[in-house]
Amino acid sequence: MRVAAAEGLAASGAFVEERVATLVEVLRCDDPEARRFALCALGAMGTHAAAAVPALRQAIRHHGDRHGREVAMEALVQV
Question: With b meaning 16 or more CB within 10 Å and e meaning fewer, what string describes 33-54?
Fold first, then answer.
């Protein structure tokens, strides 16, 4: 369910601040797949997700697996 929500939030065009805040919350969940989708969604939002930069930096430092850290780094570059 969180994965579908992250995908939907990235595709939506309205309420950018709320979408970013929701995706940042997903980064704190226990589901690594949901976190990766949230990272991808934030990256896809580009500069609209600038408020998520601190959370993206934290994800790079604390994500549980190498692939997750790589996805976080890519998202940060995109933002």
Answer: ebbbbbbbbbbebeeebeebee
Helix, strand, coil shares, percent, the chain, to 5: 80, 0, 20
Please write the tens of the pLDDT for every residue from 1-48: 555 665 565 555 667 888 899 999 999 998 988 999 999 999 989 999
Give this prediction's pTM.
Answer: 0.80
Sign of the torsion formed by the C-alpha atoms of 19, 44, 32 and 6: positive
What are the two backbone dihedrals, phi and then psi, of residue 40, each rounded to the nearest 5 degrees?
A: -65, -40
